[in-house]
Specification:
Blueprint lengths: L2 H6 L2 H8 L12 H6 L6 H12 L11 H7 L6 H5 L6 H15 L4 H14 L3 H16 L2 H8 L4 H8 L23 E6 L3 H5 L1 H13 L2 E4 L9 H5 L3 H16 L5 E4 L2 H8 L1 H4 L7 H10 E3 H8 L10 E5 L3 H6 L4 H7 L5 E3 L15 H4 L1 H18 L3 E4 L2 H14 L4 E4 H17 L1
Parallel strand pairs: 1-2, 1-3, 3-4, 5-6, 5-7, 7-8
Helix pairs in contact: 5-7, 13-25, 15-18, 19-21
């Protein structure tokens, strides 16, 4: 019997399963239940499958059947956790179930190669990701991207990856030196620049640092930081995620700061859950607790430390698209809206279903592109109904997915991060002062 299945059959796991009272309130919150309409593609149905493994009703040699199918269809958006009246820790139940599925899967050689390149040779290495982004910039500038899309020659998973490449301008800044505060000094924070965020959405990081500085914070960026490991956890590679977590803990706890600030909702949740990931590590369990206690999403941090509200007018209608892991995992939903409402002239229009996933879900839109497209289509209909010409988000994967959604649906809208909107307002205020 594998160690993973022993975990699913443990007393601790049973206690988490027993929190579910089978009320079904999670069903209407679940995007895959909305797509398939089947019980096994709802949180309640998946918990029933997990319980069947726990009780030995699904033998280890049958994991690759219905159990694997329905577990891998889950987006892990955690909307069910917000809807649940009993406090079911669905994420803590799902992670070992996914690891069990991965343990028994036999991926194709092509999938194994793609995973090895993406998860182990690219994401932990920002320099390599930046080189990749520069190559993709040439792919866009030469017109090759347009040709590839018109001919539709890529296989499904590569086509899904290509579809979320944002318009690229690979201009990067040097973060190695501390960035001093603008005006009165309010404190010193460490900044998580991430991997994909820095390579493909570098302007978001640059705006984040400027906004933090404008509000009186010295910003340091530990250069030994690496990928947060969220993507590895999503597909069941928890040992690789633990190695990345240890490296990040060492990099950030070496600094004397009041907070560790991150601008990506999914990555921030991964960082805050390092204590769970490293709970059995005698050397890092306590350090993981200390690290997580310092982590703040940038919206969460600025909502408490907006010492210098933006004053530059932006006459525009905007809608905010929640990051699932920020809203349901970190329980941060009011703060980004409050920050956007500080921008003069900005009209914020709520979505009809703001708690619904956009279909990105880590690497889900690459692993399950057909389902992800259906989830994205529903989200873009909701966005279009607001009449917004500015779509605002707070997570790397959502940002890329929404850019693809805007292009796919032909919406006349820009996609920006909350901090980019604040930064733009500050810039307009500064420009107005020069006139």
């Amino acid at each position: 019997m594998s160690q993973i299945i022993e975990l699913l059959r443990s007393e601790e796991y049973r206690k988490k399963l027993d929190q579910c009272i089978h009320c079904g309130l999670c069903l209407q919150a679940c995007p895959t239940y909305d797509v398939f309409g089947t019980e096994m593609d709802s949180p309640r149905g998946r918990i029933a499958l997990m319980r069947a493994v726990h009780e030995g009703k699904i033998a280890e040699d049958r994991i690759n059947g219905a159990f694997a199918t329905h577990i891998t269809r889950c987006l892990a958006c955690r909307a069910c956790e917000t809807a649940c009246p009993s406090g079911v820790q669905y994420g803590a139940l799902l992670e070992p179930a996914r690891e069990l599925v991965e343990h028994h899967r036999a991926p194709s050689p092509a999938e194994r190669a793609l995973r090895w390149i993406g998860l182990h040779q690219l994401m932990p290495h920002r320099g390599r990701l930046k080189l990749m982004a520069s190559a993709l910039w040439l792919y866009q500038k030469t017109g090759l991207q347009g040709l590839v899309r018109r001919l539709n020659v890529l296989p499904p998973h590569l086509r899904a990856m290509e579809a979320i490449i944002p318009p690229l301008t690979p201009r990067y800044v040097d973060y190695s030196a501390p960035a001093p505060p603008v005006g009165e000094r309010r404190g010193r924070v460490a900044f998580v620049i991430g991997c994909v965020q820095e390579a493909f959405l570098a302007p978001v990081n640059q705006a984040t640092r400027r906004v933090l500085r404008r509000n009186g914070f010295e910003v340091i960026t530990p250069m030994m930081q690496t990928c947060c490991g969220a993507a590895h956890v999503h597909i069941g590679e928890r040992d690789a995620a633990r190695a990345l977590a240890r490296r990040n803990i060492d990099a950030f706890l070496a600094e004397d700061v009041t907070a560790i600030v991150i601008n990506a909702g999914g990555c921030g949740l991964a960082l805050k859950e390092y204590p769970h990931l490293l709970a059995d590590d005698p050397l890092y369990a306590e350090r993981a607790q200390r690290f997580a206690s310092l982590v703040r999403d940038v919206n969460e941090f600025l909502a408490d430390h907006l010492h210098r509200p933006p004053r530059g007018e932006m006459r525009i209608r905007a809608t905010y698209v929640d990051s699932c892991h920020l809203r349901h995992g970190q329980r941060v939903s009011r703060q980004p809206r409050d920050l956007l409402r500080t921008v003069p002239g900005l009209e914020l229009v709520e979505l009809r279903q703001p708690d619904r996933c956009c279909g990105s879900a880590g690497v889900y839109n690459i692993a399950q592109p057909d389902i992800a497209d259906q989830v994205l289509d529903a989200k873009m209909k909701d966005v279009a109904a607001t009449g917004a010409t500015l779509v605002v988000t707070s997570n790397t994967g959502c940002h890329l997915q929404l850019i693809a959604g805007v292009r796919k649906t032909g919406l006349n809208a820009r996609v920006m991060h909350v901090v980019e909107v604040l930064d733009e307002s500050y810039r307009r205020e500064q420009d107005a002062g020069r006139r």
